[in-house]
User: Fold these one by one.
Assistant:
Number 1:
Amino acid sequence: MIEHGGSRPEQPGYASGEIPDRLFQEIAHLTADALILLDEGHRILLFNPAAEALFGYREAEVLGQPLEILIPSRYHERHDELVRGFRSSSDQTHRMGGRDPVMSRKQDGSESLVDVTITKHEAGGRRYFSAVVRDRSEKEKAEEAIRAGEALYRSIITAMAEGIVLQDSDGRILACNRSAERILGLTSDQIMGRTSLDPRWQAVHEDGSPFPGDEHPAAVTLRTGQALTNVIMGVHHPDGALVWISINSQALIRPGEARPYAVVTSFADITERVRSREELLQREEQLELRVGERTRELAALLDLSHNLASTLDLHSVTALILEGMRAFVEYDEASLWVAEGDELRSVGRRPEGHVPPGQEPRLPSQALLAVCQPGGPSQAAILEDVSGVSSAIQAMLTASTEGGSAAAQPPRSGILVPLMLKGALVGCLTLLHHRPGVFGAGQLRLLQALADQAAVAVENSRRYSQIQVTAAQAERSRLSRDLHDSVTQMLYSLTLFAEAGRQQMDQGGHDKTAQHLEQIRETAQQALREMRLMVYELRPSVLKEIGLVEALRRRVEAVERRAGVEAEVAAEAADRIPVSLEEDLFRIALEALNNSLKHSSSTRVTIRLKGQPEGVRLEVADNGKGMNSTKAYEEGGWGLTSMRERAGRLGGEVTIHSISGEGTTILAWVPLPDPAGPEVKTDG
């Protein structure tokens, strides 16, 4: 035996010398449990390092000491009872601890809970006891920490707003928290045991289509081991209510295994968020619809404004306004009135009807101003009840195109929109509807915007009519002068030549008579040319409809060729000629043709038109008697001044090449307009 702090008995339970003392010592020193060897009187024979660490004694301090020094005094009696019972029993081993706690006493007087396993040994006819002691305090602390952690975990899981569900490898629900019950509208008893494949979930996708059970996040995670996040699902409560949830799923996998043994699913109630999003989408759709309507209204107003700006005929202006309003204002009847002195005259109505000339309805304008100008600037007025306005306004609103009779169905609501220009009343728009409350502030704003454009259009058309009358009078005066200066004098010359020829015939002067007849023929032909030219000038221009080249061809067909002049129009790259240049080029060509027809006595004329990258070249050449180019430039005759002014305004020029007896060529060159617009010149 190994001597350690005194003699030691042979190793208990083994024949002497069967296990070496050194090996026994190494085993005792290396074991992690506290090992104490006792003799039959419970005196300590061996105290290993683990026991030293547990109790705080060195082995030398406890050898030969009774075991009671390691037991609190209050447990001595109980310890003696246990030892006596173990001695008399047939058991070789007895475990103490568990439900029957055993307390140990350390050197510093502190106590700790321990588990003790006592074993009986016989050696050399003597009895020994070995005690393996394990400190339960750390275990108890660990178990308490685990219990506390589990309690904390359960309290956290219970308090979580998110629903938590645990499902086994077969997808059956094993546990859930209270939030899961609340969100799903089920009790835990109703939830337990269900799987994702259970049809009672009635799950749906965001678009309302069914959400198959094998596509549920928990089922997918159990099948693939992959975690899923933010999967949106709709679930129906037993009462039919639809709840939207956002689901996350996480697999639980043991080390070394590939297949999950369970899956944890968490989900949040996002019903309000989904509803808010749906409401937001609905509001966005409504806003888009309103923006679309507003855009269409403004586009219609812009288009109407553009059309009004390009129209000068009052009848056309009236039709544009009354029809254009339908794009953004609903009405049953509408009319347009224009101011003439102190009266308003109806110039158009929808639905249309016949108004005999001179029988258009007329009403005093003061009645309108009394409604639309109650002490401030004139503005549109909504009439909620037409029957409550003055008789004059009712007459304006209900004046029919059939002589002023009231409409068959009485109107209920209306709008009066005065047309003002620079503070003066130009006219008025009236709208009627047979239902009350149809007209609102939105339509009123649009009509007010239209009224500004309509006032300008009406005033322009009225001035245009006045200009047309003045222009017609001026044109009649010009034609009268032209007839007097050319055709009338030619006709008078014909009478003189005819009288001279008759006298020569009476006197037998046949040669003289023939000369007079030739003069009559030439004069008549010239008069015919002049008349055809005047008739052509009286025709309306078709330039905008058919284009420059075709307009020139029609001109020479109607005038030159009928006058016996061979005429040709040759065009090259005409598609390069901008529309903005066609009017001036056409007028230059007409002036050149007129000069040739009146003065050159030509039998052939050629018009050449060529579009080039830099500009347009126009050439009018005849085979007439020619002229003095220098004199024409200096005196500005033959319409050259007009041609040069037109070309100069476009940045071009006009030149004349003429040789007496060989004809005349008038050449016009006009550059292409700058796409960026004309340069603005400023002083300084």
Number 2:
Amino acid sequence: MKKKKNKRNNILKTRKKEEPGFEIKNPLSTLSEKTQRYIFSGLFFLLAITILFSFTSSAGVVGAGLTYFLKLIIGTVVYVAPIIFILLGIIILQNEESLKDIKNSLIISGLIFLAGATGIFSLAEIKTSESLKNNFIWNHSGPGGWIGYIISWPLFKGFDFWVTFCIFVIAVSFSLIIIIEPFWKKWKESFEKEDEEEEKPKNKASRESAALLEKMKQEAKEKLKMLDFKKKEADNSELPALEIKKAQKGFEERKKENLIYKYPPLELLSNKSGNSEGGDIELNSAIIKKTLLNFGIPVEMDEINIGPTVTQYTLKPAEGIKLSKITTLQNDLALALASQSIRIEAPIPGRSLVGVEIPNRKRAVVGLREVMDKNDFKISSASLLMALGKDVMGRSSFSDLGEMPHLLIGGTTGSGKTICLNAIIMSLLYRNSPDELKLILVDPKRVEFPIYSSLQHLMCPVIYDAQQTLVALKWLVGEMERRFTVLAEGKSRDIGGYNSKQEKKGEEKLPYIALIIDELADLMSVKGKEIESYVVRLAQMSRATGIHLILATQRPSVEVITGLIKANITSRIALKVGSLIDSRTILDSSGAEKLLGKGDMLVMSKEFSKPKRIQCPYISENEIKKVVTWIQENNQIEELLEGENNYIELEEKTNSLSGELQKAMETPEAQMDSFYSKEDPLYEEAKRTVIASRKASASLLQRRLGIGYARAARLIDILEERGIVGPADGAKPRDILVGEDSEE
């Protein structure tokens, strides 16, 4: 029985010990380490404030009693006590790793400073008082307080006054150095970091410094190659095309050398620009990380790039995570971020990161002047360099039309398609004189391009209908074939090499020709097959001859952007489209349906492995008028040239091609025969065959000329259009409208 009672008592005692009510705990132990630091730091700041107010008798009885007690302990050094308490509060408040390791050394240095300062005051009192020199009074409190007297009296007895004074001064000096050094080092680093951030744009990451350095190295290498190239006396035809291009003069050099033509200044364009607002960046970054983690995708957030239209949040997924899992969560991320649409770029080209692009709260207006006022635009030697806008990192983007060599633009109404075309045209006008670049503008809408009608760069008046467009395309095909003959005779591979040779000889150069169509869908609906055939032929072969096409449409369907056109025009710009199908038609991938409109676009060319998001620059109608008017008023050739003969020679040189095309525009019917003759060498023979036999059918031409049905039917159509044969009338034979002895 006794054993059972003892067991039960032991169990009860054990339970009492385990119960929480019997255990005494530190009330601060339940708080977090951060909260504890704030509490202790606040207490030290409170002590400093109390002592400061007690000096003016404004801290009450507690403040006066605290100051009296400190005076007994440390004497006159009490006036430094608030500074000491404030430093202790700051030390406790800090949580940086760099300050964690030196907290103890800072506290010890503070105690050494206190001992040295009190010792100096007490030492001065001991030297002047004979009673204090000889007798040690343990409860004495003088200017140095009780602590100072206890420390200084034994040292004074052992080392006398001057040695003891030096000891205290050295102790105070070293303690101050130890206390100030870490704070000074930290402040210095923060100042240097702020200076670096001010020099860099706000939206650029630190990694760009390395890229800039690499770019400068590449530019230096290119300059050295250019110097070596100039020293060579060999013919340009024996050098690679790349070296010839690098040896070409930059835009600023050509601008200074051209004394006849005055290039328009950038001051004509508006310099209005604004800053974008990306919203709460930290919150959005945390939401992205948490949302992906909820779906079992742990990620690490990386840098954040604030662009003019969107903010790009970059993240690095954990190893073993498929990118397809992240891309399928677009709608879930848009819901979590309360965003109208987001775009995921997985991966970012050239980096092991995934980009999540979120629309900004406030979009920044990107002006054309802001983009063109960059060294990349001024120094480049590319004649057909176009200012495309700014990317998601806020960097200006340019592209060379000569390298593309043709461009296809698609986007819905209101997406910024026409403004994009205007920005491209203005970029070309700012870099080229009329004898360097010729433009053919096609505007079926009749309201967009008439503003350029007074430009000397135009080869013909602005074209408004499909028939004139067809004539212009046929003329371009003939001009392309003529240029191939000229290049072959000059033993040059392309127009760049030919013009370099002509410039050395002082002879006439070939101008670049750019055909710009604002609405391709309207033309394709009227004369689709004919326009498609000529567009495809120019796209296949005209690059070397300096003829380039820029085609824009608001209906990116397969009837307008056919397979042949897409296959031969690989550089494309997609603005906002209405559906995923339209995006795939332009880019062969999704993404354009997620764009925000108003110039937000995706650019695809051989320079980018994946479509690159760029905000197109805005240019108003008033700015275009200013530039066109300035060019017209400041480039009156009669006023710039001294002699009449020089004027006539230059006028003939710059307008020879324009005269040919304008003649074709004025009399398209009369020019049809020459175009068809150039296009099909059997046209004349087919005409003679039909007139001689007094019959007209595709089967007749097949038998007589030994050609296929498609070519024979095409020749019959040509003969009908030229008025040689009559129209088809069911099963009846066609009428022959000319006689055997008639001449055209």
